[in-house]
Write a structure and sequence with these properties.
single chain; disordered C terminus; alpha/beta; 393 residues
C-alpha cells in the first residue's frame, strides 16, 4: 500500500519563540581563561555576540518563509512521519536526486544548491543537468518524527530514504551527501542498487585497507592522514558522549538555548574552511537558522541518538561491504578526513574524484557553486542510462 504524502506548512507557535527569547535574556555563561579564544571550546566573546543577535535581531519567520517557498511534505514510513522538501525540475528527463544532511546540520544546509540543481538553465547551466531534488530530514532531526524504539541506526535511515524515493514514484535516482548523509548514500548504494544509479559524496568514510603500507603514501596524503589523527585525538569528545550518553547531554541542550548554540556553533567553526573565524564562512543568520531549527523542534537529543544507535549496531563509520554503484567523490581541503583515492577505491566503485580548491565539512553552505558543478559533472557519467520517472507526489 502506497504511503500517504501530505503537504506540510512550517509555522512555529508564537509561544515557543517568546519562550526562547525569555531564556536568551536569562542566559548564564561561564567564565573563560584569558586569551583562550576557541582553545577550550566555544569562545565566550563570540558566543556573547551570537546570543545578543539571536535575542535582538534574528528573524525565525524569515527562515520559515524561505523554507515554505519550497514544497514541504510529511509521509508516514514504517510508523514515522518523515519531513522532506521536494523541488521538481521544470526540465523533461530530470534525474531524481536525494540529498541527505548530517549532524549538526539540517535541510537548511541545501538552500543554496536546491534551485541550481533543479533548474540549471536559470542558473547558467544546461537542462541536461537537471534534477528533481528531494531533501529529507533524517528521523529525529528537524520536522521528522523521532524513533521511539531502540535500534534506529544509519542503515535504517537509508532504508527510510529508499522507501521515500519509491513512494514518490522514482524508479531510478541518484544520492548525495556528506557526514551522516555520506553514510546514508553509501548504504543506499548497497541496499537499493536496483534503483540507486550512483552516489556522490563530499565526505568519504573509508578505513585503511589492511594490506596498504603507509610508507607508500605521498607526502600530501601523509599530511592529511596526520591531520585526521590529530582531529580524532583532540576534537572528537562530542562523538564519545553522543554515542554513549546522548540522553544525559540532551537534558542540558534541550533546556538551554545558550548551551545548544555553544555546542553547535563550535562544530561550524572547527569543521569549516574559515581559518578559525566562523564569520568568514557563515553569517549569524545562517548559523542561528540551523540552531533555532533544533531548538523549536526539540530534536537535539533525538539527533544525537543516531550516534548511539549506529555505534551499538556496529555501523558507525565506514560501510563494511563494497559499494558497487558508480561513486563520485568531492574532496574539500578542510574536511576532517580526506583518504587517499586508492583507499576509497577499495570500498567504492570510484569513477569520479575531484580535489576542491576551498571549502570544508559544510560544502553546500561554504562552496555551493563548486559542489553543484561537481554533482553535475559526476552524474553526467550515469545519466545516459537514466529512465524517465513515473509521476508521483
Amino acid at each position: 500500500m502506497k504511503a500517504r504524502v501530505e503537504r506540510f506548512h512550517i509555522n512555529i507557535h508564537d509561544s515557543v519563540l517568546e519562550d526562547l527569547r525569555d531564556r536568551l535574556g536569562q542566559a548564564r555563561l561561564p567564565s573563560q581563561i584569558d586569551g583562550a579564544g576557541w582553545t577550550y571550546g566555544t569562545d565566550r566573546e563570540y558566543l556573547d555576540e551570537l546570543l545578543d543577535y539571536w535575542h535582538d535581531h534574528f528573524d525565525w519567520r524569515a527562515v520559515e518563509a524561505r523554507l515554505n517557498a519550497y514544497e514541504n511534505f510529511l509521509v508516514d514510513i514504517d510508523g514515522l512521519r518523515v519531513h522532506f522538501i521536494h523541488r521538481r525540475s521544470p526540465h523533461e528527463g530530470a534525474l531524481p536526486l536525494v540529498i541527505t544532511h548530517g549532524w549538526p546540520g539540517s535541510v537548511l544546509e541545501f538552500l543554496k544548491i536546491i534551485d541550481p540543481l533543479a533548474d540549471p538553465v536559470a542558473h547558467g547551466g544546461s537542462a541536461e543537468d537537471a534534477f528533481h531534488v528531494v531533501c529529507p530530514s533524517i528521523p529525529g532531526y528537524g520536522f521528522s518524527e523521532a524513533p521511539r524504539r531502540a535500534g534506529f541506526d544509519v542503515k535504517r535511515v537509508a532504508e527510510t530514504v529508499a522507501h521515500l524515493m519509491s513512494t514518490l514514484g522514482y524508479e531510478r535516482y541518484g544520492a548525495q551527501g556528506g557526514d551522516w548523509g555520506a553514510m546514508v548514500s553509501s548504504y543506499l548504494g548497497r541496499i537499493d542498487s536496483e534503483h540507486c544509479c550512483g552516489i556522490h559524496l563530499n565526505m568519504v568514510p573509508v578505513p585503511r585497507p589492511p594490506d596498504d603500507e603507509l610508507s607508500s603514501l605521498s607526502e600530501s596524503e601523509m599530511a592529511s592522514l596526520e591531520e585526521a589523527r590529530k582531529t580524532m585525538r583532540e576534537k572528537t569528545g562530542y562523538q564519545a558522549i553522543q554515542s554513549t550518553r546522548p540522553q544525559t547531554l540532551g537534558y542540558a541542550l534541550n533546556d538551554s538555548p545558550a548551551g545548544l548554540a555553544a555546542w553547535i556553533v563550535e562544530k561550524f567553526q572547527e569543521w569549516s574552511d574559515c581559518d578559525g573565524d566562523v564569520g568568514r564562512r557563515f553569517t549569524k543568520d545562517e548559523l542561528l537558522a540551523n540552531i533555532t531549527l533544533y531548538w523549536v523542534t526539540e530534536t537535539i537529543t533525538s539527533s544525537m541518538r543516531l550516534y548511539y544507535e549506529s555505534r551499538a549496531s556496529g555501523r558507525f563509520g565506514p560501510v563494511a561491504e563494497r559499494v558497487w554503484v558508480p561513486t563520485g567523490c568531492a574532496i574539500f581541503p578542510r574536511e576532517m578526513y580526506k583518504p587517499p583515492r586508492r583507499w576509497a577505491e577499495a570500498v567504492y566503485n570510484v569513477v569520479h574524484w575531484k580535489e576542491m580548491a576551498a571549502g570544508g565539512h559544510f560544502a553546500a553552505m561554504e562552496e555551493p557553486e563548486a559542489l553543484v558543478t561537481d554533482i553535475r559533472d559526476f552524474f553526467r557519467k550515469v545519466r545516459p542510462r537514466a529512465k524517465k520517472r513515473s509521476e508521483g507526489d
